């Protein structure tokens, strides 16, 4: 498994009546692939996984694997409250042909360090798929500490970390402790270039759903050492990237996709589409970004 590169956490597309819109989903996937992304992540927060049925998740995963057809890895996110449910999805991901897993600590229960490590190890030992630990204590209230990663290093298929602690120096701490044992991917759009410069090898991205070419350009330029060129794009990008760090990131990013012609704003309840002053404010950020969009 190659964890290097840009991995969009793609949104799930719906028709106005709430039914899955696979045609629009594939249209967005085509744009991602044409723009040079390095993998696809399904079932994350942006994918509205919490409001999808088991059957819909299976359909979405299976159809995506078939459509991608090996061109890039397809990663399934696991965000479950029960270990047995996480084990179910690890097994189902293998059956459906996914390339790897991204996994959060147990949801809805504030597990302690021993419980979190046991949870991750239990899932890792149940599958051959490579895994990425999603470390996001800001949104999900559980910090996976460096010492916990020290215990998880015993599982060879735990290979990568989605670094979303909001602490850039954590990249350096991890590298100082573990070298290249874990591949570090930035999981916060507004810190991506900074973490790439400090040694992260990838970017699990959100605004890439609407702006894949610019996201890939920043990543590639950093890898090529063209820092000033990357910084110029990143400075333009930042007001848009800040849409990723709000509780309504799903609505904000879907509205951006709609403005870019590669998605729709349809969300599934309890989420609602934006109205009033909030909608005007977010649309202003998007339209100003589009008006000043850099030529790559």
Summary, kept brief:
The active site is at 134 (proton donor/acceptor), 162 (schiff-base intermediate with substrate). The protein is α/β, with parallel strands linked by helices and 296 residues long.
Topology diagram in text:
Elements: E1 5-8, H1 22-34, E2 40-42, H2 54-68, E3 74-78, H3 83-96, E4 100-103, H4 113-124, E5 131-135, H5 137-140, H6 146-152, E6 158-163, H7 169-178, E7 183-186, H8 192-197, E8 202-205, H9 212-223, H10 227-241, H11 249-259, H12 276-291
Parallel strand pairs: 1-8, 2-3, 3-4, 4-5, 5-6, 6-7, 7-8
- pLDDT average, as an integer? 97
How many domains would you count in the coordinates? Answer: 1
Rg for CA atoms: 18 Å
CATH superfamily: Aldolase class I
The strand count comes to 8
CATH topology name: TIM Barrel
- N- to C-terminal separation? 29 Å
Strand content: 5-15%
CATH architectural label: Alpha-Beta Barrel
Alpha plus pi helix count: 12
Notes on the protein architecture:
The protein has 296 residues and is α/β, with parallel strands linked by helices. It has one domain: Aldolase class I (TIM Barrel, Alpha-Beta Barrel). It has 12 helices and 8 strands. The protein has an 8-stranded parallel beta sheet with strand order 1-8-7-6-5-4-3-2. The model has no long low-confidence stretch (mean pLDDT 97).
